Amino acid sequence: TIPGQYYLDGVLLGSYNPPDGMKALREFDLFEDDCIVAAYPKSGQTWTLELVYLVLHHGTAYERENTARDMRTPWIEWGPVDEERLRNISNIPRPRVFKTHAIAKHLPVQLREKNVKMVFVFRNPKDVAVSYYHFYRMNAVLSRFPGTWSQFYEMFMAGNVAHGSWFDYVQEYWREFKDDKNVLFLYYEDMVKDHAGSVRKIANFLGRNLRDDVVEDIVKRTSFKTMKDNFATRAHKIPFFDENISPFFRKGNVGDWKNHFTVRQNEDFDRVYAEKVAESGFCIDFGE
Ligand code: A3P
Predict the structure, then answer these.
(1) Is this complex scored with an ipTM above 0.90?
(2) Which atom of ligand 1 is nearest to the CA of 40?
(3) Distances (CA, A) of 137 to 2, 54, 148, 182, 244
(4) Catalytic residues
(5) Which of 1, 209, 240, 282 could disulfide-link to 140, CB 3.0 to 4.6 Å?
(6) Does the CB atom of residue 93 touch ligand 1 within 6 A?
(7) pLDDT category, 234, cuts 50, 70, 90?
(8) For the packed helices 263-276 and 166-177, what is the interaxial angle rounded to 10 degrees?
(9) In the chain, which residue ranges form alpha helices assigned H by DSSP?
(10) pTM of the prediction?
């Protein structure tokens, strides 16, 4: 169990996403030029948020002020409804970039009404599970999970973790948005393989034409190492993270699952994956 846990439409959430916050998310006022970055936890969302943010704001005074991550790319549905916080994030300079972990049907109603752009990030679910396990261990809002990897693996496969089943989560997004020109699907593995290409892809999607030196600078500033060390992008003051247990910017590579999955877990996973998503049409690279 995690603090304040409850289920919303079958999806496990904690006290950091209480019912009134989820309702406020649904009713959140968007502008046409907002961009929402949605992802299942541990899919490379922090990285993508920073990429989108820099594509839109590189070189501006707002960007140079080095505002902390929580204000440059705020998580819409964070915490119980706090009018002041909502007002603050409503007033950040446009175009605004928002984070969400909501399942597709919990997204703001205005997303579709106003044709707001959205970026969705996929990551291979074996690495997601491993990354999530370490995050569960270090994060007090996820109970600082004291169990073993194998116990976490069972929870993950059962969808009994915060934000629910990876399988349901990504399939619902894919089904809902795969043909929507306002939604860009990105893959963590592609971003690792072709970082500059991903910057260009995002810029193209958002209608920005970036000079080569700007692309290069964005790549430099969003490298794993730079983001890990950077004041603005690291979660520098998050009191419920214990980075002595596991750092927030942990490894940032593809294939760490091979250091965790047993042969049996891997076979079990491949069988479930084949049953559940093989036909979906999105294409996950497991780094094999
Ligand atoms: P690992 O735990 O495998 O290292 P999210 O931001 O969605 O929570 O995803 C976290 C994962 O993205 C972590 O994976 C983290 O290290 C990785 N990550 C964060 N910033 C990154 C970057 N600039 N480049 C590559 N990976 C990054």
Answers:
(1) yes
(2) 7
(3) 12, 31, 10, 36, 10
(4) 101
(5) 240
(6) no
(7) low
(8) 30
(9) 19-26, 45-57, 61-64, 69-72, 83-90, 110-113, 125-138, 149-157, 166-177, 188-193, 195-205, 212-221, 224-229, 263-276
(10) 0.97
